[in-house]
Please model this.
Amino acid sequence: METISDNNWLLTILVFAPLVGALIMVLIPQEDEQSHKQVALLTSLVTLGLAAFLLIDFNYGKAGVLQYFVDTEWIEVIDAGYTIGVDGMSLPLIALTALIMPLVFVYSWNHIPEPGNAKAFLILSLILETGMIGTFVAQDLVLFFVFFEVVLLPMFFMIAVWGGENRRYASLKFFLFTLFGSALMLLSFLALYFLTEADTFSMLVLTENAGEGITRGTQLLVFAGMFLGFGVKVPMFPFHTWLPDAHTEAPTQGSVILAAVLLKLGTYGFIRIAIPMLPEAAEAWAPWIGLLAVIGIIYGALGCLAQTDMKRLIAFSSVAHMGFVMLGIATLTDFGINAAIFGMVAHGLITGMLFFIAGSVKERYHTLEIKRLGGMLAQAPRLGWILGFVSMASLGLPGLAGFWGEFPAILAAYEPAAGVSEQTFRVYMVVAAIGTVLAAGYLLWLLQRTAMGEPSAEFADDPNITDVSTTEWIAWAPLLFGIVLFGVAPGLIFEVTDLAVAQSLDNCITTLTGCEVAEAAASSGSGGG
Amino acid sequence: MLAGIAPMFGAAEFVRPAIDWHAAAPELTLLGFGALITMIDIGWLERARRIAAPLTSLALLTTMVPIITLALDGNDRSMFNGGFVVDDYSLIMKATFVLAGYVVVLMSTNYIAEGDYWENEYYGLLLSSILGMILMASARDLISIFVALELLSIPAYMLATWRKRDLKSNEAGLKYYLMGVFASAVMLYGMSLLYGSAGSTLLVDINDAVSALASPSAVVVIGIIFVVVGFAFKVSAFPFHTWAPDAYEGSPTPVTAFISVASKAAGFVALMNLLFVGFLGRDDIFEPLMWALAAASMTAGNLMALRQTNIVRLLAYSGVAQAGYMLAPLAVAGTVPDKALTASVTYLVIYAAMNLGAFAVVIAVARKTRSAEISDYRGLFHYAPGLTVAMTIFLFSLAGIPPLGGWLAKFRVMEAVIEADTASGLVLGIFVAVNSVIALYYYARIGFSMWAEDAPDGDLTPVNVPLSLGVALALTAVITIAMGVVPGDVVGRFTEVSLLAGG
Model:
């Protein structure tokens, strides 16, 4: 398959720049908090600069081709390569990661959570960044696995050390759930290695091979292993239970990173690995994935309606939103998967922003209990308005980014790929549509109870309750701008992803007749969004 | 009368076997130094104390020289009709034993000196135990295996009781001794049965004899089972692990580290010699046996580790589980011999680094807290951040979290059992996967205590880490990380071993 290797040093530097920053910080004494914050911010800005260069330099005409492609030996004895590259599918997610991290560091400038120790906190964040970007550029299954797991330890400690009261339970649950999934996922990777004749972990080769020579029964099993690994991370119903706990206990920065980027590792795994490599199994599993997705949409929404804690409510809304993403993926169509990638970016911006707001509310009110809050618009009008704006984006108001994640996913369910039952997915479509109504319900209800009305007596004269501060403005403005920008001009993302998605579905034509039809349907249906 | 005997001698005139001195150089070097240390002790008595540890370190580092020259030379060597073999596999294991021994010496230096224990004897016994281990790596004959085993075990029994005024140490040594001798007896009985059916003590001949039969005779089956069970004691596989927690807890901690790493590795080496050279044709017998031992060890070890409150006992039970992971590839040894051997060797090498490191931290922390209770690890991060990071590296490497070395070890194990492409192999792979999750719980729990809880009594005086212990920590930490990140050069060149040269 064609690849482009121009400027291929870029990705390696992009991935490891945060790690270099972390190493520098190891040498700075712990007391010098200001230097730590400066180095962390500077490192993430350098990474953002590199990502910006990547965005400019990227050949959009060939977005379906892996660019900046490096393929060298890494661990010879197990045939694992240091294979990295970027195409239209991963580019938006890399940009999202590189954007979120500096904002997190700006926010950390005067918000280092209890019990302090900026050095350790910021070093862990930088290691996280390396792990996340690495996962999106890895083009070798072993390399992917390693980066996929590298994020676990920093996140575990972020929740365990800087989390809320119940942090022990939440951090262990997060760690155990994700490791369980990824251990079985590793078995599937190994099975894939031995079952294909090429004996390789190269994603490019495995995608081209598309499960050829593996019996249907085995494919179903191997896919199931990956499904567990990625499904836990997404998280899909019924593996989602770690998410509300982790989000509730994590410090604001941890929640933002978790929502904005970490959850995408799972969905990205589906579209990059599970589906293109085992299309036949994907087709067989699609109705079940779709079913769990719509259960997630409804369950997440109902869960939101039952919450009394603002952060927990946002966490459950993540379950629902990721349900839309998974529904788009489950259709196995060009249109649906494009919608899913858009949904990932939109969810990253919107929910990341919501968690920032929740953190600021917690800081001012020292509680996130919805019934104690109220009248935010009167006391801190800008904060209240931002909450209102982001809630609108989250419920899928047309013109804002959230809309383009949900609406096309629902639309795609109207006509799934040819091998997948149309009736089933039309039922899913209706259910998902009901989910959007519920989403409007819980978000407006949240807004009404927290922002509207009079401030409760408890907080009416509290001098702590101030409006949005400067660091908050700096940290939030890019997200708010992004929500509007991609809402008005969704083509910015769709045009990048479409070629890559088409390419990845195109690969399975030889082995799966369904794909052929899907391809035809997709080209007539979406035409590039 | 003399005339009567002479023809008997004449008939089998003794021919001095050719000796490849280069091949035997590591053993001879170590033997020489061991004798030297004993002599010095006899001559100088107390005055020898100061040079005991440096001399032992020198002995081990000097022993590395012939190991390295043999590795550079690269030729497989064989002596005594194939009873003593030097190949890549034996060299990597010898290097592991010697380096592990070196780290143990580093860990012992202050511990033994400050505890007012006998020093020269300690190091002399340590060296003779290591001599037994490197001999084991080359042994391809029932008798030399047995001699090597006793040579490595008997000093270890004594070392376990080194804190002789401590009841727990006495208990540890006695339990270790009784169980060890019992295991030796069972094994020896098995060996006699195998010798009876093969007529030779050479493993190659035994393999020919046991694989000649279409269905094995009862004698062969019992022989193999007894020998395997004997070594199952040595590697503390479930259900033959019962001595381990008590022996580990009571022994001086450097000795515990030595037993749990080097002695266990030596047991595995013996087991692999026997399985791959002696019984390979009878995989229908040993594969199910290994499967059951592996699955039972990892599951039982992890479940019992969950409830431990003492970190040494926890490491003992986690060691049972780790033995299970190392046994897993042997359960497919007949189907994919090369892969299985490589996987077990890789695991042993990485396990040695990370487990020794964990014990080094235990020793360091105990210098302040005088205890090995997990509750005393609370808040470690606040007064010993360096030790906390090191312990985090070792524990999560044991748990198999990338990019730390342990992931590669587990990866290779899973690779081997999956490549076998049998239902039993796949089920074993799932066992490994699920057990990794169970194990993570107790490792992560310690991690949580160290990082996120407050120090007991708010005591934040720093831990004083002596230089030699610091070197041991740095060495093991660097190896643990390097094995996970850039193993291409470290593991790749040395553990890609093929089937052992037999004769």
